[in-house]
Amino acid sequence: MPFPKDFLWGGATAANQIEGGCREGGKGLSTADVMTAGGKGVKRRKTIPLEPDTYYPSHVAIDHYHHYHEDIELFAGMGWNCYRLSISWPRIFPNGDEAQPNPEGLAFYDALIDDVIAHGMQPLVTISHFETPLALQQYGFWENRRLVDFYTRYAEVLFRHFKGRVRLWLTFNEINCMSTQPWVSAGIDSEDEQVRMTAAYHQFLASARAVRLAHAIDPENRVGMMYAGHFAYPNSCDPDDIIGTMDFMHKMMFYCDVQCRGYYPAYKLRELERQGVTLPVQPGDDEVLRSGTVDFVSYSYYLTHVTGKKTRGILKGLNGLDTGYKNPYIPKSDWGWGIDPQGLRYSLNYLYDRYQLPVMVVENGLGAQDTVEPDGSIHDPYRIDYLRAHIAEMKKAVELDGVPVMGYTAWGPIDLIALSTGQMSKRYGFIHVDMDDDGRGTLKRRKKDSYYWYKKVIATNGEDLD
């Protein structure tokens, strides 16, 4: 049996994409709360201040804030032993810089996490998942070093408050999105590489401090970093394409290098020097980074890219990264994302070979349009086919390649707001939610065919994928 007995099976969500309750329980606004809905070919906008008569998907999302018990019961019904969730920073510190946390926010997560544990699931908590408190704009968001202290205070509150209940943590979701979607990642609204790299440096420091705190508060804590899984194949064996691909991967992987190794790689330092970018290093920072390395690597995996001499230095956006090349060997999803199961095996090997740390796939799934039949059933064989193929490749990475994979949490196990478009029609879930792209619907939950398939996969520890 390739997967160990303690393999973690479950699903992953983000507070800003499922919770809603935007103004309830003392919660403050976040960077996600000023993002409008988009669609295929329609870019989401950020509007500050909020505009009247404008739909902001995160404000209600799928109302998990009021439906969490029902949702957790549905998750448990699939046999999960792990649930990756995120905590909304402005629900705990509404403005981000308060001296004391919001009691109502902690009470909500007390109830939620206790419910998760009561249903036999281990919580894996993302501390910051694209929800920087909007009020921190007064400091310039993550360009300001003070955010390192604000984040550290927030993380310490979580470590102490949930001690013994949460032992698996991720510091920042998809931290390399600083180079592709800096507003989403850090409230940064600038094309200036100095600004972006200053913000990234501060997040590295904050993550390292959090890792050290987590270990000091509870030695049983394990803290991981989380990478937006961008992996690339060279367009050809032309040496210029090979170097172009190396350049692309360097721009992504340095984020992992710093968090896993504790220092900036030489290739990045030389690149910053060429760009005239100066890191805001202060005395003691190097030791913090060295001593705050993570315990494991986690990442999202949806697609692979083709890169080459035309892509050197190009980073255009999260969903697909238009590299100027296409892969003729793989199909695409309804939203144009390449479907490459073998790339998952490749990426698992790539990360383990590079860092020799345990690896966890914390996001993987297919965004597709579903149809509710007259009898209420939802047949989604395309989703089952997608997940089956990816899990089969993950199994090969474990069984044939010896990669120590900790677990697998499928993305969007219940339909939620899509990050890239703000849509509900781009559905990932095993569970359907009656809500449309304009925020209309009953919020009724329905199990799809994939719900029962995933339940069987988990019950057999990944052996039965039929």
Automatic annotation (TrEMBL):
Pfam families: Glyco_hydro_1. PROSITE patterns: GLYCOSYL_HYDROL_F1_2 (PS00653). The keyword Zinc-finger does not apply. One of its GO terms (molecular function) is hydrolase activity. Keywords: Glycosidase, Hydrolase. Gene3D superfamilies: Glycosidases (3.20.20.80). InterPro entries: GH, GH_1_N_CS, Glyco_hydro_1. The keyword Hydrolase applies. PANTHER family: 6-PHOSPHO-BETA-GLUCOSIDASE ASCB-RELATED, GLYCOSYL HYDROLASE. Belongs to the glycosyl hydrolase 1 family. This is Glycoside hydrolase family 1 protein. It comes from Gemmiger gallinarum. The lineage of its organism: Bacteria, Bacillati, Bacillota, Clostridia, Eubacteriales.
